[in-house]
């Protein structure tokens, strides 16, 4: 599966390159990997349209199963929980929510799952910082008066871009494995806590090699600057400042990766599944603050308010809402994406269509926030029946 995905991605890269090649204004600009291409868009919240036209909140009430959510939410608010469900209800004109899940690892282990998520997000964010430096360097590589120096700069920037892309893929796989630990998802394929921790360690090691390549890139930039004596002061300044920033970001990536190793070690001693850990739940209220956009809800849990935008809905034959794609993003606070279903399962085709819709709207789930499936065990999942 991973291999096939790799092939598809390679084909996309080749197609993109072929497209550029046939362009009359082809300038030898190296194509950027998808990870860095999305760097700018990842700086801010997307502003996707919501399903306002015929949305009726009364029909949205009732019980929903969470089919999956993105890592920052799943490994923080839902760390250590499986079978996450939401019950939306209306009483006396007030809309309420009850989110619940079944605890399967200890609270201590759940805190470590969160710490690993924070470390993964940190290294991913530092990798993005390197991405931000690349366009100016690629631009500069075209305008240096010494073409061989320009070529060196372009090819080292391209190599860094690829290293970042691979590092991001590794960190995503770490997040997936952390999701398995968080949900004690060991029932298939003879997997265990140990094997999930091995996965974290393996991809962290691999990511460290790509981080080394980024550190080398900073060194190479300094060398290029030292040789660029005939170039403009401005070009030298660009090289020097990029080297400095990339060196600092590389150190940031390294800190995050080291924290992953430490977290994995702690999890090995604390992350064992627990039986019958009990139901964990939170309550809150739901409002519709935007009169012109009824599907832009807002959820308040204790003092924290967050947007709850329904950006896709699937309907059953009788017109009832059967699945929903929900986006929540607050600049500087965080983003998440949820898929809900009236049943504990969802057709893979519906899920795939939802996720590709999100992507087409500029909502990316790269290494900062990959989409993780929620372990549902069908029906009540061993929980007492939900009621308000
Ligand atoms: C709703 O109103 C009824 C009658 O006024 C009251 O008995 C009930 O407690 C209220 N329910 C909630 C959830 O506030
Ligand atoms: C309400 O929604 C509309 C349409 O989506 C949007 O243009 C507007 O900015 C929103 N208003 C507020 C206050 O968020
Ligand atoms: C549990 O692990 C299996 C095997 O890797 C995977 O296919 C499945 O998607 C995982 N389930 C969840 C809910 O993460």
From TrEMBL:
Signal sequence bounds: 1-24
Coiled coil: 207-238
Highest taxon, organism lineage: Eukaryota
Biological process (GO), any one: lipid metabolic process
Protein's UniProt keywords contain Cell division: no
Keywords: Coiled coil, Signal
PROSITE patterns reported for this sequence: LIPOCALIN (PS00213)
Gene3D superfamilies recorded: 2.40.128.20
GO CC, one annotated term: cytoplasm
Protein name: Uncharacterized protein
Lineage: Eukaryota, Viridiplantae, Streptophyta, Embryophyta, Tracheophyta
């Amino acid at each position: 599966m991973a291999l096939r995905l790799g092939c598809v991605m390679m084909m996309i890269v080749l197609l993109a390159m072929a497209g550029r090649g046939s362009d009359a204004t082809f300038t030898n600009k190296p194509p950027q990997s998808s990870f860095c291409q999305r760097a700018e868009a990842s700086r801010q919240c997307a502003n996707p349209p919501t399903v306002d036209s015929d949305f009726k909140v009364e029909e949205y009430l009732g019980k929903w199963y969470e089919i999956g959510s993105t890592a920052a939410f799943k490994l923080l608010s839902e760390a250590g929980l499986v079978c996450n469900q939401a019950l939306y209800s209306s009483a006396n004109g007030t809309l309420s929510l009850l989110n619940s899940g079944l605890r399967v690892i200890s609270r201590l282990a759940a805190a470590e799952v969160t710490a690993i998520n924070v470390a993964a997000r940190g290294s991913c964010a530092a990798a993005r910082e390197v991405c931000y430096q690349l366009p100016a360097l690629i631009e500069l590589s075209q305008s240096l008066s010494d073409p061989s120096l320009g070529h060196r700069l372009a090819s080292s920037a391209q190599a860094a871009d690829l290293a970042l892309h691979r590092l991001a893929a590794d960190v995503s796989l770490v997040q997936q494995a952390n999701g398995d630990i968080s949900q004690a998802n060991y029932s298939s394929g003879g997997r265990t806590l140990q094997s999930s921790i091995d996965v974290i360690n393996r991809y962290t090691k691999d990511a460290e090699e790509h981080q080394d390549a980024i550190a080398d890139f900073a060194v190479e930039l300094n060398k290029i600057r030292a040789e660029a004596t005939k170039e403009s002061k401005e070009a030298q300044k660009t090289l020097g400042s990029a080297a400095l920033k990339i060196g600092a970001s590389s150190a940031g990536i390294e800190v995050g990766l080291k924290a992953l190793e430490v977290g994995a070690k702690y999890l090995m001693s604390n992350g064992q599944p627990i039986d019958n850990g009990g139901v964990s739940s939170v309550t809150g209220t739901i409002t519709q603050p935007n009169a012109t956009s009824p599907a832009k809800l807002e959820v308040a849990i204790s003092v924290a308010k967050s947007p709850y935008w329904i950006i896709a809905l699937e309907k059953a034959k009788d017109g009832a809402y059967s699945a929903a794609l929900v986006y929540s993003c607050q600049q500087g606070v965080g983003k998440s994406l949820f898929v809900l279903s009236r049943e504990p399962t969802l057709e893979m085709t519906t899920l795939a269509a939802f996720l590709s819709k999100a992507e087409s709207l500029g909502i990316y789930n790269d290494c900062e926030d990959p989409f993780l499936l929620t372990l549902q065990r069908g029906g009540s999942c061993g929980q007492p029946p939900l009621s308000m």
